[in-house]
Amino acid sequence: MIQLKPRPVTRYGVAFATALMVLTGCSSGASGPRSPSAGATPASVPSPDPLTWRACGKNLECATIKVPQEYTKADGAQIPLAVMRHRATDPDHRIGSLVFNPGGPGVPATETLRNLPRTAGTPGAFSPTVLARFDIIAMDPRGVGGSQPVRCLTDEQRADAAGTAFNPAVPGGKPLPRLLTDAAAFTDGCARHQSEQFLASLSTDNVARDIDQVRSALGEDKITYYGLSYGTVVGPMYATLFPHRVRQMVLDAPIDTNLWFRNSLTFLNDVAVASERTLNAWFKTCRSEGTAVCPFGAGDPQEAFDTLIDTLEAKPLKIAPAKGATPGGELDGAMALEATRALAGDQNTWPLLTSALLAAQDGNGAPLHTLWSSVTVSPFPVPTAMFEAHTAVRCADWQTPAGIAAHKTAATKAVDEARRIGTRAAYSALNCARWPAPNKDRVTEPLTGAGTPTLVIAGRLDPVTPHHWARNMTRTLDSAVLLTREGVGHGSYGTNSCVNSAVDAALVHGTHPTDGTVCQPDTPATTRPLVSANQ
Question: What integer is the mean pLDDT of 290-305?
C-alpha cells in the first residue's frame, strides 16, 4: 500500500493546470474570413493611458487596462483586463518587457506568474537569467481569470456535471442524446449569462489586439514573447497583425494554427491520437523494464490496465476522506482512465502513475482518486471552473460543422485510431456546433509572423500537441527554426536543460540553434514506482 503525500500532489496539480491545458478547438462556423492585414487595430482606436501599478505580491505589481470589446467600435463597450508585472531583477541590464501566455485557452496568466516561484521545473517556468533581464508581463485574456471571466454554469450545474458518471466504453462518455442535452444546457447558459457580442469578441485576434494595447500602455516599442500550447496561437496572431512589434518569439508545444482555425474535428482527432501514443509509451516502457522494475501487469501492463478500468467501472472503489488530499467519494473506470491519461502524458510522473495503478489494483483507489481530482484541466471538455472560458474562446476561433453527421463520423474515427483515449475525445466539439454567438469577422488566414525571428520547440511525444504540428507551424512562419526535445511531455522550457539554454539564448541574445536540433532528456524515463508494491 502506498501513501500519497499532499505536497507532490499539489505540485502536479499546478503543473497539469498550466501544462496540459490546450483545448480541442472549434468555432460557430461563422462565415467571412478576414485577412490578417484587415484585422489590425483601426487607427481610430486611441492609445491607452500608461498603466497605474499597485503592489500585489513579492516583486509583483498589478494593474487594469480597459480595451474595446469590439475594435471596430472603439467608442462602444469596454472590457477590463487584469495585467501583472514581475520587474526585472537586474534593472541595470533590463532588455524590455516579455509578454507570455501559458495556454488553455482559459489558464489565467496572472495566476501562473504569481505561482512561478512554486512551479520551478514545470513547463513555462522562466529561468533566473530571463527574470533578471525582462519585466515579465502577464495579461489574463478577455473572458479569462481576472478579465471579465466567462460564466455559463451555476455552481450547482458544475457540481452536478462533475459528479455525473462517464462510461469509458461509450464515445463521449454518455449516450449521444444526453450529450446533446448537455450541450444545449451549456450553450443556453452561456447566452443567459453573457451578451452575444461579448462571446463573439473572445477570439484570438482580439486577444492579440489587447496585447498591443498593453504594449502601448507599457511604453514599449517592441515586446519579447513566450507562448505555451494555446499561447502559440496568440503569439503568431500578434506578430502577424502587428508586424515589427515583436523582437523575439518562442513558441513551446505549438499548435498547427492552420488546423486550429479551419478543421476542429481533425484537430480533435490529432489530440486523441497524440494522447494515446503517450499512454502506449508508458505501456512499452513498463514492459521493456521488466517486472522487477515495473510489476504492474506482471509483464502485460496493457491487459492489466484494461482489466482494471473494466473492474473499476463495474464496481467503483470507495474512497475515504483524507485531510489535505481528497474529500472522498469513489473511483470508477472513467476517473481512473482520465487520471492515467494525464499522468502518462509526462514521463516525469510515470513512477507516480505506476504506484497509483498498483494501489488501485490492490483495492486502494485513494492515490488515483487524488490525482484525478488534481487534474483540473484536460484537452477534452471537463466540468471545471475553467471549462467555460476554455470553450468560449475555441468556439469564437474555430469552424465546426453544425450537422451531427460530421461529429458521428469524427467520433468513430477517434475511437478507431485511439482505442482508449478516443472515447474521451469523441463529440468534444458539440458545444461549438451550436454556439450562440457567431463570430463573423474572425481572422483565418495563415499566421506567418511577418518575419519575426521565432524558436519553435516541440516534444517528440507530446500528449496534446503532436510533433507534426510543430513542423507545420515552422513551415507556416516566415522566419522560424525547430528544436525537438526527445521524450514524453507537454511543454519543454523549464523541464530540460538543453531546451532551457536554447530558450534563454533566444530570448536574451536573439540567437537560435540550427534548425532541426534535437535535445535529449536530462534523465531516462522509467516506470519504476515511487514506493514498492509490497509496502
Answer: 97
